[in-house]
Amino acid sequence: xxxxxxxxxxxxxxxxxxxxxxxxxxxxxxxxxxxxxxxxxxxxxxxxxxxxxxxxxxxxxxxxxxxxxxxxxxxxxxxxxxxxxxxxxxxxxxxxxxxxxxxxxxxxxxxxxxxxxxxxxxxxxxxxxxxxxxxxxxxxxxxxxxxxxxxxxxxxxxxxxxxxxxxxxxxxxxxxxxxxxxxxxxxxxxxxxxxxxxxxxxxxxxxxxxxxxxxxxxxxxxxxxxxxxxxxxxxxxxxxxxxxxxxxxxxxxxxxxxxxxxxxxxxxxxxxxxxxxxxxxxxxxxxxxxxxxxxxxxxxxxxxxxxxxxxxxxxxxxxxxxxxxxxxxxxxxxxxxxxxxxxxxxxxxxxxxxxxxxxxxxxxxxxxxxxxxxxxxxxxxxxxxxxxxxxxxxxxxxxxxxxxxxxxxxxxxxxxxxxxxxxxxxxx
Length: 428
Prior knowledge:
It contains ten helices and 18 strands. With 428 residues, it is of the alpha+beta class. The protein has two domains: 174 residues, no CATH class; 197 residues, no CATH class. α2 runs antiparallel to α3.
């Protein structure tokens, strides 16, 4: 008597056929989607570089390190206006439309109820018809923009959720549909807004702004820029050696003070070790284990030389291996931090009572000045941490006495404390 079909084999074949069918379905659907895009004369890139967002700074652009992009479309509307559409990671993978305005203009954000641009800093706030929010950096420009583009913008808002910004020389709108037919309708509805601004360029000329840098920058921090990686830094910045496969990620470059530049990134590397173990048969075996490591590096290059100074968290082990810490009048500071310097007098000169009060109040992170470099010990790598460190250190240098700068041969300090207690930067 012959055996019947193996039910396990039949089940496997059914699952295999089902998986193949699903794969074919999505492949055909994807092919039709891309075909529909290209039939319109648009160019499609399934894996664009984050650089397609170069120059965009108004949130969700210009914040954090989530700069990933996907599904980039470039084309032209029926009215002849160029556009690009792409998914942006920091916007929750929403689709963003960008249309050129022909002139760089002040920041402006217009959103419908329920829509927002988290992180936008606006000096002027107003309401749109229907309850929308209007945020602007320049009240006069906001009025001028609404005079020339308010009508087309309102018409667009009656059909689609408004989430629009003037970002340098680009008009951006978040929330475009994916379907090519729906996207075309969406683009044609948005084009009159950008077109109105382009047509009114002569009357908007008094509001012209500097041309935005074509790089991945940071919102309201004009000197900062982002690179996904910059492994060349490992040849010039001190880092942990040994191991293999050294690389960098989430690199931020920028200006700290005039003539002083910073770099911040994560350094990754691997090490291998051999370990011995006993297998299931009781035999001794060896295997190679690869371990991943990372460290956060934040470093500032100073335009002047000074004695070494180290301000670290209080540690008995540190005193054991690095020698006694320099003591100051405030016991709470001595309990919180260990201070060492190649010139103890210099440490006392710059860490005077008002300086110590400042560092204690702001809860400074540990830092070291050595060889014309400042290195911090950040708790994590983020734009917020970098900004905090730079603000702390700017306040630290601003509180150096004038005679210290003179002893260092610096005729004009790059930073000082103004009468109102604010840090004042000298730019020549």
